[in-house]
């Protein structure tokens, strides 16, 4: 607005200067004219002044219009909310400290090099630094036990559900990389949006066996064991000749029993985790994809279902061991029995006192 005002002001001054020059030329011509020249000069001077007034009015209108346009633009500009301002300040601060962070990291690397050099000069054997969870030297041992995630549920998912599913797959892969002994990880029916999300996180570089075919075409029928919480078969131990398939379904309780029904239709074996045999849940025993995968991974490393389930299932599920629940129930029964015994003892004592006291009509 201020720049527009000065631009219009300069235009107004230029117009005034042109008007003054015109008046000077008119007065000079009047001296060289004949007797009627003064009258003509006098007639031309009001006209010139009138023209200058008109130009000034036009310039003032231009200034007013420019100021109004600037004010309207300021009013039309979007106003940031408090949260947006906080984010803007945070991002600005983060960008301003980029160089400082780089210098700190560089200084830390230099200190680590000097410490490592000093340890070597002192004759100490310095082992190579390994990144945790990487395969190779010092990485996890890979088990031949196969676990697959079935991604053939796009027609039951919205875009947000597919994003959640692929995030759970990513979490499962990260847990597999950090484990002491890793499962052989398979992904089947990798197509459509799932494939796009997988490629977006460089999934082609993962140590995962990916197949675009469905699980029943990828593996032999007698090798498949589909995991479903509705199954009546309990998975007690692993069989390396089998592949355990996890249904990649984010259902939000909308498709109850769908994976079990699909397993029955395809005629493949099915089983469930031994959660009900070891624990009691206050909610459904349906778990997320990464929870099921991590339970299988923990059982592979610890060979204990109780430890594996307890270490993975979140507390909000209300997990309680059956032994603890039986102990609390027995303790409650014992307490009730003690209270009953106490009441019986009190009644017996009252009866004994009454029998020891003399009757009111009996002689002393």
- Listing every helix as H and every strand as E from the N terminus to the C terminus, the arrangement reads HHHHEHEHEHEEHEEHHEH
The largest beta-sheet arranges its strands as 3-2-1-5-4-6
Multimeric organization: single chain
C-alpha end-to-end distance: 119 Å
Contiguous helical run count: 11
What is the strand content? 5-15%
* Count of DSSP strands: 8
- Spans of at least 5 consecutive residues whose pLDDT stays below 50 are 30-35, 37-43, 329-364
Q: In percent, how helical is the residue content?
A: 55-70%
Radius of gyration: 44 Å
Described by the principal axes of the CA atoms, the overall outline is extended
Largest sheet: 6 strands, parallel
Structural class: alpha/beta
Q: Average pLDDT across residues?
A: 75
Please provide a written account of the structure:
With 364 residues, the chain is an alpha/beta fold. The protein is 57% helix and 10% strand. It is built from eleven helices and eight strands. The chain has helices at 2-32, 37-76, 82-96, 98-121, 159-178, 192-200, 215-218, 258-266, 289-302, 305-312, 322-356; strands at residues 141-150, 181-188, 209-210, 224-227, 243-247, 269-271, 279-280, 320-321. The strands form two sheets. The chain has a six-stranded parallel β-sheet with strand order 3-2-1-5-4-6, with helices on both faces. A two-stranded antiparallel sheet has the order 7-8. Helix 1 packs antiparallel against helix 2 (37-76), helix 5 (159-178) crosses helix 6 and helix 5 packs parallel to helix 9. The model is unreliable at 30-35, 37-43 and 329-364 (pLDDT under 50).
